[in-house]
Amino acid sequence: MGTAVVVGLVVLGVVLLAALLSVRIVRQYERGVVFRLGRLIAVRDPGLRLIVPVVDVLRHVSLRIVTMPIQSQGIITRDNVSVDVSAVAYYGVVDPARSVVVIENVSAAINQIAQTTLRKVVGQHVLDDILADTDRINEDIRRILDRTTGVWGVDVTLVELKDIQLPAGMQRAMAKQAEAEREKRAKIINAEGEMLAADALGQASDVMTEHPLALQLRTLQTLAEIAVDKNSTVVLPAPLMSTISELGTFLQHETAAAQVSPNGARKARATQAEREEPGDQPATSSVPGPPGTA
Q1: SS3 label, residue 114
Q2: In contact, 58 and 86? CB cutoff 8 Å
């Protein structure tokens, strides 16, 4: 009786141990690749899965997107400029069986091929294209990696250049170039402003020519603006030429009026006589001269 109990306990223990060894849990983001005696037989979906103990081996393969940084690479561009470029790649497993059977270490393999592809693609471009057209470079790298890793059951979803380090001399040269470009744009804008101001001043001068009082009003406005600063001395240029022109016009009108009026000459002489004082008249007296003088 005692021997039967012992045997029963041993059998029960073996059964429990076999049950424990045969139970496997596959998570939602994983797939289970089952090998029986070294041969691939199936890919298990998420959930509670049973395998044959000792005979079967189940390997978990994650299907989540993996973020893989690509370390900085020293690259010489097509125009012989030395740059250090780092990037980041995103990939995920789409075929669990191939990712286990075809390649030994997916992460290490993708890291190495990504570094060589980065050097190859960036080295085919000049520096200006690398700095300005990073989207096309990213797409070229992703397409090459995806074509290479597709046979491994891996899909490369995205590649982005993360950092581009330039030599100090090149940075100074680019800064000078950018400064010169901005100075050129500033001069062009200044010249365009001067041209517009000259056109506006020409139009203003035409208006002032048609309306002489406009210049006087502008002069008074300038005087009012200067007076705000409470200056003790104000130097204001007088419109000398217009004043001379107006004076000449006035004299011409007066001359014409004097010629038309019949009494104009007499009035002018009477006015002139009134302005002369008696002391200014020459003294005339009859002084008897010596005999024999006429």
Answers
A1: helix
A2: no
